Amino acid sequence: MRPPVPAIGVIGAGAVGQTVSTLLMGAGWCRELLIASGSPTSAEALVADLEDMQQVLDASVLVRTAHPSQMGHCAAVVVCPRAKFTNTATADVRMAGRAANAPIVARLAHTLAGYTGTAIVVTNPVDVMTRLFAEISGSRQVYGLGSNTDTARYRLTLAHHLRVPVDAVDGQVIGEHGDDAVVCASSTRVGGLPVAVPFAEVRAELSARPRRINHGVGRARAGPAGAVLAALRAALGLTDGVIELCVNHDGRWRGIPLRFTAGQPTVCLPALDHGEAQRLLNADNKLRTAYDTLTPHLTEQEANPE
Ligand SMILES: NC(=O)c1ccc[n+]([C@@H]2O[C@H](COP(=O)([O-])OP(=O)(O)OC[C@H]3O[C@@H](n4cnc5c(N)ncnc54)[C@H](O)[C@@H]3O)[C@@H](O)[C@H]2O)c1
Fold this sequence. Notes:
Blueprint: E1 5-11, H1 15-27, E2 30-36, H2 40-57, E3 62-65, E4 76-79, H3 98-111, E5 118-121, H4 126-137, E6 141-145, H5 147-162, E7 169-170, E8 173-175, E9 181-183, E10 189-190, E11 193-194, H6 199-217, H7 222-235, E12 241-249, E13 252-261, E14 264-267, H8 274-292, H9 300-303
Helix pairs in contact: 1-2, 1-7, 3-4, 4-8, 5-6
Bound molecules: nicotinamide-adenine-dinucleotide (NAD).
């Protein structure tokens, strides 16, 4: 059977880009994979590695390097570059990449101005970078990835704490993919029943888990790449379901649950209690300030859509 998706572009051939590309090669539902990176050497090396995989598996996916300007025809692009910088932050770790990553994301958004496919932004701080990419490119289907992984980590933590199977846990984390993420405890259900959420344990694990992964294997890759594939499948209409992604929701860019039906998203925000609503407002304000103060990190050309 002919793969349903013609082409997908992956921009950034690091830990996330490599894992996303490997998963896409294995999944076999796109015909062509286009790879761009910060250096021709890394893009070419990833393509060579993927070609080996393609031959060994007799996979049908073709892979080649391409400049982002050659990705306009792709059904989707995955935006996962990272600038070279040393992150010394001990709190708000993702936000620390703002100044370094913003010019790269802004330049890519200019390159892909008017893009009509689906863009999945991964680069941190993801909620800010998603908005930056969307506003400069003018692209209408831009989704940021983060709350979905937070939600997965929340469910795993709760299941472990309560000694229940993770399938029994239904609950979400929304807002910022960062220190001000909002745990939707009041709507969380375990086996269909409300539950006392151990906030301190959940918050500690949401912050410690990525650090442990980074410490042990260099960078988080499998979880985020899996989330990229889930987002692509939903946004490209290959599967229906709910996934937490960063979008422009009433003028605020934040992670929220979206129900995808045949590729069309509908917001399905859980009911929030007063404290959760306040925390979401705080996260919105923090993200807005982070966005509004990006300008000093961008040249005039990078900042302004043409
Ligand atoms: N949102 C999430 O849930 C999530 C999860 C994991 C990682 N991330 C973020 O994703 C980004 C990538 O992470 P990583 O671990 O793959 O980083 P990495 O350092 O392993 O790789 C970064 C890649 O970006 C490339 N690059 C640099 N400048 C580029 C440019 N101008 N154009 C194209 N490519 C360029 C580099 O050559 C490198 O291949 C980081 O910002 C990271 O914090 C987000």
